[in-house]
């Protein structure tokens, strides 16, 4: 079995919460898998930044 770690975060700006579409079928918080050398905070920051760029 392959073990992966996924990290998510709740991003609030001026009372609005960032949510992302999951293939147009559901909504979720920004999240993703940790990359080599990242800690949990770095993963959360990277994923949140990436999702805001869309």
The chain-level structural class is: alpha+beta
Please give the domain count. Answer: 1
Helix-strand string: EEEEEEH
Gap from first CA to last CA: 33 Å
Low-confidence stretches: none
Query: Percent range for helical residues?
Result: 10-25%
The quaternary structure here is single chain
Number of contiguous helices: 1
What's the arrangement of secondary structure elements?
Layout: E1 6-8, E2 12-13, E3 16-17, E4 20-22, E5 26-28, E6 31-33, H1 40-52
Antiparallel strand pairs: 1-6, 2-3, 4-5
Notes on the protein architecture:
The protein is α+β, with helices and mostly antiparallel strands and 54 residues long. It has one domain. It has one helix at residues 40-52; strands spanning 6-8, 12-13, 16-17, 20-22, 26-28, 31-33. The strands form three sheets. A two-stranded antiparallel sheet has the order 1-6. Strands 2-3 form a two-stranded antiparallel sheet. It has a two-stranded antiparallel sheet with strand order 4-5. Strand 4 (20-22) and strand 5 form a beta hairpin.
